[in-house]
Amino acid sequence: MSNWKEEYFAALGVRDQREKANIALYDAYTRLADRTSAIQQQQQAQSSSTSSLPQPPNKKLPSKPDPSSAQPPPTGPITSDVLTTTLKELSEAQKSRTDLLDKLSKTTSELEKLKKKTSTDARRIADLSGERAHFQVRIKDRDEELRGKTKLLDDLHAEVVSLNLQFNMAEDRAKKMEQDNQELVDRWMAQKRHEADEMNKTSKFS
Question: For the Autophagy-related protein domain, which residue ranges apply (predicted)?
Fold first, then answer.
């Protein structure tokens, strides 16, 4: 039976689909790791370039900083674009992962149903195969019985034909004997009439 082969190939197909479906997720995380590394390298380069600038002469700093002179930390346009793109790709990767998990759950459920159905079908096929073998044996026995009865019927038919032939021959012999007997009776009666006639003639002359 090929049910175990079909189940094996179906499991391989599900595995391939799952692995191929996760490729997008793996690529997204790879791109995210690359971009994160690029951001870190860029930040390190900026910090190293800042530290390499000449330091201004020491002056007495005011006790309180001027709010108007406070500047926001430098964030270049390249870093913002990379961060935005990375977050977008991360969001898409998370969404793709959720979709893949849903598909995996559905595929696994369907595979379990197919396994149960395959197991049930295998038991049913085994039962039907046993019944088929049993019926084949019974049919073989009936064929042998029919051949024996057919031979017996042929023998009886031949015997009936032989008996009919013997009966016809006996009937023909009986008819022949009846004719012969009738002829003998007729001749005997004719002889007796002739003798009676002769006796009558003799008695008239005497």
Answer: 7-200
